[in-house]
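Q: A small favour: would you put together sequence and structure tokens for a protein?
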Amino acid sequence: MEKNGLLISLIIVSLLLVGSAGFGVWAFMGMQDYRDNVDAKIEVAVDEAEAALTIEKDAEFAEKYKEPNSTYVGPSAYGTITITYPKTWSNYVNTEGSGNLVDGFMHKDYVSSNDKDVNYAFRYQVTRSTYDQEVKKFDSAVKAGRVRASAFTFSKVPTARAIKLDGEVGSNKKQGVMVIAEMRDKTIRIWTEGTDFRADYDKVMESLTFIQ
């Protein structure tokens, strides 16, 4: 009877030892797997952080590379419109034969002659029409909801009469933002096409000047 009790005790102890060993192996494997997963997650997080930092530095470099800015000064007969723009842009201006007194195009790197396929970074015109005539051209688009109209004030020419149009403002119904401003018996139209250069457009508009 005592032998049976001893045998049972030995069996129980053996089972406990085996169970403890199994639990130890399981725990070790779990810790190893957790460590491997953590290392992998840390590596992914580091890669993502480095990629984000690279993108941020590239964007910062691109902005700094635009400086110092270039400046265009238009004819004095047409309001001496003065535009300070990124040096990485090219500027083409036509003062003859376009139907407008001044017809300007600005874009990154170079100005393409194919305006149907290009959303120009910056466009500017001095027209022979009066301010009211130019604004009236967008009446139907505003009523149809294709264009939103709001008041606009130039930072450098705060007394100028002006309006901002957002929507179908470019040629061929291109989306963009346009400001129409009164300049004596003439009108200035300034706009950007698409959304890629909206931030640059807003910055250029802050320093734009002309003689009323």
Notes: The mean pLDDT is 83.
